[in-house]
Design brief:
3-stranded antiparallel sheet; 20 helices
């Protein structure tokens, strides 16, 4: 049985009381567990099954090279230089081994061309955990030494500084290569709250030198692990924003003296859309004991659509969130490498005995090393954009509800919510003007960025999904959503307090919101500068803890 959204969010964002060790098997890692691992102090261990896959995966391309095959990134160079030899068939023997290491280290350096600012530590740590888990899945061809090097950084909270800008659009290249450089001791890391040279940290922790060998180089830099980590951070932000939404919607209904009818089970049942009941019941749960359950002759028969449709719009966003997390759960247990290694491949397809497949096998019938475009993230990028658009709708109706709440004809309260103590005051007469520009910022984020790019590698890499950009835009959309909520809640809490002065009782959930908000933003008894209120309210909403019983 699936947990209700708000409960799963609470469990996901609640701080852990003690550090834990999480097992990586390449099969079962989830977005929520990965987010927990990214916190400081959390450690990982690879399961015995995972280590067995790492060993088998490493061996496959080595065996293929021994058989005389050209292996992209192992025995030959990248892109338009793929005709250049890097190492001979016996890759593990000298001088081939040294040639492989020299090639990999050079590739790390020449790919590093990103732009600041750097990602925060949690994204850096998640990117490394994703890569290690994908090694345990058996799809990367990377060495045990690489796996141990990643694990050492993860378990000591050594987070390579990764530029947040400069993705190739198809994979992370310039971003991910900084992880490799840090493992080599040639770049800087974030360690114990400071920027420190990686070489210094490695010496302090007494770590053995790491030299990327074989498939390590291409597997470290040519993947989408940073983009996946960035996507997960954005999704977790969006997740909390959506979990916050029911109580904000409920507070707006109380501010308006609105109708509960659009949220009732028998109403939602007639629509039948996914997450409809979950969204509606989450809103109503905040209205237990609210005055809205009593008859009121002054209440309008029906409310503006920004109030009436809020449940369905929230449901749409919740469904998009579920779809996005599902794809990410799949992504972090598979791989975005090229070439791929698969040591457990099916051998019963109608084409399995085709002659051309013999060129891809590495010894056993179920072991393959072959070219692909696994770093194509079109499906995930499209889903990220869909979630961004859904958040845009949630943000949109929040802004419109806010404009309705200053209309005395809608609420029956004073125009602009001017308190009775505020004689001759203007109240919230001009606040929406500031909100309008933020609203425009948010709506601009709904435009697609998929497909844009400049062909590289002499034209061989000419399609793009720009997962990094979609993740960045989702994160920014959630930020704008919070900002718009800061304006809405300033209005709803003012109206709620006015109704309480008239003897009306607020709901259990909305009362918790109101009481917490009043600790940082006081009731507006006279005109004042609202900038501190908006910013303090924003901080309050971003850190708001969702009750588990909602």
């Amino acid at each position: 049985m699936k947990k209700p959204l708000v409960i799963s969010i609470l469990l996901a964002i609640a701080p852990l009381s003690f550090a834990a060790t999480h097992n990586l098997d390449g099969r079962t890692l989830t977005v929520d567990e990965l987010w927990a691992i990214s916190a400081p102090g959390e450690k990982v261990a690879v399961t015995p099954e995972g280590w067995a896959r790492i060993k088998a995966s490493y061996k496959a391309p080595i065996d293929a090279a021994t058989d005389g095959r050209d292996i992209y990134g192992l025995t030959v160079n990248y892109g338009a230089l793929k005709d250049q030899k890097v190492a001979g068939a016996s890759v593990e023997a000298e001088p081939n081994r040294s040639a492989s290491i020299k090639f990999n280290e050079r590739q790390m350096r020449i790919q590093a061309a990103g732009l600041e600012p750097y990602f925060d530590d949690r994204i850096s740590k998640m990117a490394m955990v994703i890569r290690l888990n994908q090694m345990a899945a058996g799809y990367t061809g990377m060495s045990e030494a690489a796996a141990k090097a990643f694990q050492e950084y993860i378990n000591n909270d050594v987070c390579p500084l990764i530029p947040s800008r400069g993705s190739e659009g198809a994979n992370d290249l310039s971003m991910a290569t900084h992880i490799g450089l840090a493992l080599m001791g040639e770049w800087d890391v974030s360690y114990q709250g400071k920027r420190v040279p990686a070489a210094q940290v490695r010496k302090e922790l007494k770590l053995q030198p790491y030299h990327p060998f074989g498939m390590d180089g291409i597997s470290i830099l040519s993947n989408s692990n940073v983009a996946e980590a960035q996507s997960i951070a954005a999704v977790k932000k969006a997740e909390h924003y959506l979990a916050l939404s029911p109580v904000v919607i409920a507070s707006s209904l109380e501010a308006l003296n609105g109708n509960v009818s659009p949220y009732l089970w028998h109403t939602v049942e007639t629509k039948g859309w996914p997450q409809g009941h979950e969204a509606a019941e989450a809103v109503l749960a905040n209205l237990k004991d609210s005055y809205l359950w009593k008859k009121d002759a002054k209440r309008y028969l029906q409310d503006p659509l920004s109030f009436r449709s809020a449940g369905y719009i929230l449901a749409a966003a919740m469904e998009e969130l579920n779809q996005t997390k599902g794809l990410l759960n799949t992504a972090i247990n598979h791989t975005t490498d090229n070439p791929i290694v698969n040591t457990e491949a099916k051998n019963d397809r109608w084409y399995s005995n085709a002659e051309v497949l013999d060129e891809m096998r590495a010894g056993k019938p179920t072991v393959y090393v072959n070219s692909c475009s696994n770093f194509d993230n079109t499906q995930l990028a499209l889903q990220m954009e869909s979630l961004t658009k859904a958040l845009g709708q949630v943000m949109h109706i929040s802004a419109w509800r806010t404009t309705q709440l200053v209309d005395d004809h809608r609420t029956g309260l004073p125009t602009y919510l001017v308190a009775k103590e505020n004689k001759g005051g203007d109240g919230f007469a001009n606040i929406a003007q500031s909100m309008s520009g933020l609203y425009a910022d948010g709506m601009a984020l709904t435009n697609s960025v998929i497909g844009y790019g400049v062909p590289t590698s002499i034209g061989i890499e000419e399609t793009f999904s720009n997962l990094n950009a979609t993740a960045d835009r989702l994160s920014k959309m959630a930020d704008v959503g919070y900002e718009i909520y800061a304006y809405e809640v300033l209005h709803t809490t003012q109206a709620m307090d006015m109704r309480k002065q008239d003897g009306k009782q607020m709901g259990q959930g909305t009362t918790k919101l109101l009481d917490g908000y009043r600790k940082v933003v006081p009731f507006v008894t006279k005109d004042r500068i609202f900038t501190p209120d908006i910013n303090n309210g924003l901080k309050f909403l971003k850190s708001y803890q969702i009750p588990a019983n909602n």
